[in-house]
Design brief:
The protein is mainly α and about 300 residues long. The protein has a single domain, classed as Na+/H+ antiporter like fold (Up-down Bundle). The chain is built from 14 helices and no strands. About 50% of the residues are buried.
Length: about 300
């Protein structure tokens, strides 16, 4: 439990520093987008290449990966259904909202949760890989298709697959599958750039909070609350039911449900800010799920211990 608290404290402290940067005018208005652009096109690709090139491809084969992936897709589908019934949004905003309902924070919070509650950091690595190779490209393809280019879906797919995040992820997976290794002199700058990705995203997120109040009328409050409820309640429940149906072991069930209860990843906000779609909804959902997930994960751990 201490590790979870430490993980949350670290993230919230960097977000808080970002808020203070905005409060004191160190970074103003649109200037914060520079952080998003650099994170999206440079730092995040470096981080993802480094993570994937050193990963073990065999970890992709696991009941936990199957359960978490299917429950994430189900959570996203629930959001799309809810949005069609209660709060219609444009395609990009709906896609981003669906992503916030199912895209977990497998890195910043996933690692401390895996180490200190689940007992092994390897549990979140395949989830991170699955999100990078399947979920992120799908979202980016949808976002690219809304940029007004009339050449259609094929052009959108082409732009998405040439996105630096996707290219870096694919290159990292190729290195992992082939067993290749970069010389350390080449890997060092990549790792240094990658180390800047998460702080940049968190700082930009914190700066965006200055002068803003979450869950304001007219800001998409119904979408935020729906995505948050689906993320923290429905998705873990779906994971639990799937584990029961598949006869997954008690420990792997605990792992899958806990991972499903992780909050929305901050890099979803990076995508929203880069494409300038659904920023407020994504920002508020990340804020709500980040704070509330600590309670949910603690409850799951307590139930499992009991």
């Amino acid at each position: 439990m201490l590790g979870v608290v430490q993980g949350f404290a670290l993230i919230l402290s960097i977000i808080g520093i970002g808020y203070l940067i905005g409060l004191f005018g160190v970074v103003k208005g649109e200037q914060r987008r520079v952080l998003n652009v650099v994170a999206f096109y440079v730092a995040s690709p470096a981080l993802l290449f480094d993570v994937l090139q050193s990963s073990d491809p065999s970890v992709l084969i696991s009941p936990v990966v199957l359960v978490t992936s299917v429950s994430a897709v189900a959570a996203a589908a629930l959001f799309v259904l809810a949005s069609r019934i209660w709060f219609r949004r444009d395609l990009a905003t709906t896609a981003l909202g669906a992503t916030t309902a199912g895209y977990i924070n497998a890195n910043n919070l996933g690692l401390p949760v895996a180490i200190y509650i689940l007992g092994d950091a390897a549990y979140v690595a395949p989830i991170l890989i699955m999100q990078l190779l399947v979920f992120a490209p799908t979202l980016l393809t949808v976002l690219e298709s809304t940029r007004g280019n009339r050449r259609g879906a094929l052009a959108a797919v082409g732009r998405a697959v040439t996105n630096p995040i996707i290219l870096a992820s694919a290159a990292g997976l190729v290195f992992s599958l082939a067993g290749w290794q970069l010389p350390q002199i080449a890997l060092d700058p990549i790792q240094m750039l990658g180390a800047a990705a998460i702080p940049m995203v968190l700082l930009s997120f914190g700066i965006s909070l200055h002068g803003q109040r979450a869950l304001q009328p007219g800001s998409g409050r119904s979408a935020v609350l729906t995505a948050s409820i689906i993320k923290l309640i429905a998705m873990p429940l779906i994971a639990w039911l799937m584990c029961l149906a598949l006869g997954v072991s008690a420990h792997e069930t605990f792992v899958a449900v806990t991972v499903a209860a992780l909050p929305t990843a901050q890099n979803v906000y990076n995508y929203a800010a880069t494409y300038r779609r659904g920023e407020i909804i994504v920002r508020d959902t990340i804020m709500v799920t980040t704070f509330a997930s600590l309670v949910v994960i603690a409850f799951i751990a307590w139930i499992a211990a009991a």
